[in-house]
């Protein structure tokens, strides 16, 4: 019903940069917040960055100053610009959206997840 598709992952050397993109599609009335989580092998999934509809942002302490999240409300997309990448940034990155579905019986709030994209930082 709603799909989130990530792109932009890949292999990069330490100190390099990547830009991840996520596009949400479907019968969406509005998106309250969009964000990125990541999960490395053997570790818990953690919040990387989130952005509200009004533009307010939250970042994990480990990425502050290096990552920047943005969104286009009209296109239902979010980007994560990752700079000064470190090996510890290696993980599968997941896009998520907290949104309202436009249903025949009214609006329904629901969270959706993308399938994930691999980011590997290695020399």
Q: How would you describe this protein?
A:
By secondary structure, the chain is an all-beta fold. It has strands at 2-7, 10-12, 18-26, 28-39, 46-52, 57-59, 67-72, 77-82, 91-103, 106-113, 117-121. The model has no long low-confidence stretch (mean pLDDT 97). The strands form two sheets. Strands 2, 4, 5, 6, 9, 10 and 11 form a seven-stranded mixed beta sheet that branches. Strands 1-3-8-7 form a four-stranded antiparallel beta sheet, with no helix packed on it.
Residues in helix, %: under 10%
Our measurement of the CA-to-CA distance between the termini, rounded to an integer number of angstroms, reads 40 Å
Regions with little confidence, pLDDT below 50 for 5+ residues: none
- Secondary structure class reads mainly beta
Question: What's the number of extended β-strand segments?
Answer: 11
Largest sheet: 7 strands, mixed
Q: Could you tell me the radius of gyration in angstroms?
A: 15 Å
Number of helices: 0
Q: What are the secondary-structure elements, in order, as H or E?
A: EEEEEEEEEEE
Give the mean pLDDT. 97
Morphology call: elongated
């Amino acid at each position: 019903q709603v799909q989130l598709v990530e792109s932009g992952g890949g292999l990069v050397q330490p100190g390099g940069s990547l830009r991840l993109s996520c596009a949400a599609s479907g019968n969406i009335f509005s998106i309250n917040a969009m964000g990125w989580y990541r999960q490395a092998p053997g570790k818990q999934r953690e919040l990387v960055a989130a952005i509200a509809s009004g533009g307010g942002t939250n970042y994990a302490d480990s990425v502050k100053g290096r990552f920047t999240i943005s969104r286009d409300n009209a296109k239902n997309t979010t980007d994560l610009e990752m700079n000064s990448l470190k090996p510890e940034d290696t993980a599968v990155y997941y896009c998520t959206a907290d949104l309202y579905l436009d249903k025949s019986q009214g609006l329904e709030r629901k969270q959706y997840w993308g399938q994930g994209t691999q980011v590997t930082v290695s020399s």
